[in-house]
Amino acid sequence: MNLLLNRDQNSSSVFSLIPLRIGSGVTFTLHASLELDKEEEALIWKYNFASAALVVSDPIDDLRQSFRPALILGLVTFIAVWLIGSIWIAYGPAIIVTLVMTGVYFKTLREQILVRELMADGRKFRCDSIVALIQKEAYIENICAYLRQILESAKNWHDREVLMIPPLSKEEAKRAVLSTSR
Predict the structure, then answer these.
(1) What's the domain range around 81?
(2) Nearest to 52 by CA among 4, 108, 6, 119
(3) Which of 47, 50, 166, 176 qualifies as a cystine partner to 116, CB 3.0-4.6 A?
(4) DSSP states of the chain as a string?
């Protein structure tokens, strides 16, 4: 298993829609993908790991975080259409912009990472600073190491494991029995 990381940066001008920011600055992008050998890919499909979440996040919290900037864009749309047309015409475009941008922000800002996202074309992560980019890299590296260990365990799930349990002395046996009875 290989983890492929590509880094990029974009200079945002006065206004950037994703992430919603006003003012200049740099936005960093991290693209992470997995390169698997045939055996690892077979294990992932055999045990349905592709739909497993490596990182679980609260979708309601992610949706709430995505709705706030989308609502701002919806209000700006409402005011712009209201000034051009009428208040009744402004509701439709404002609601559509709010809903569409909530979906866009949700896809961009969510923290949940699925195995299939890293397997296919990879996943892009947007970071506000180089420190956040390095932290995200380290985090993704750790969760991929975790996935690697799961795949190693999956290779031996049908094997029989023998664990030697040495006999205890009389005093150690008493302590062991007393500690497990609580």
Answers:
(1) 2-180
(2) 119
(3) 50
(4) -EEEEEEEEEEE-SEETTTTEES-EEEEEEEEEEE--HHHHHHHHHTTGGG-EEE---HHHHHHHHHHHHHHHHHHHHHHHHHHS-HHHHHHHHHHHHHHHHHHHHHHH---EEHHHHHTT-EEEEESSHHHHHHHHHHHHHHHHHHHHHHHHHHTTTS------PPPPHHHHHHHHHHH--
Q: What is the C-alpha separation between 18 and 102, in angstroms, rounded?
A: 11
Least confident of 10-14, 153-157, 175-179: 10-14
- Residue whose tokens read 């996935």: 147
Q: pLDDT digits over 140-164, tens only?
A: 899 888 888 888 887 777 767 677 8
Q: How many domains does the chain have?
A: 1
Whole-model pTM: value is 0.62
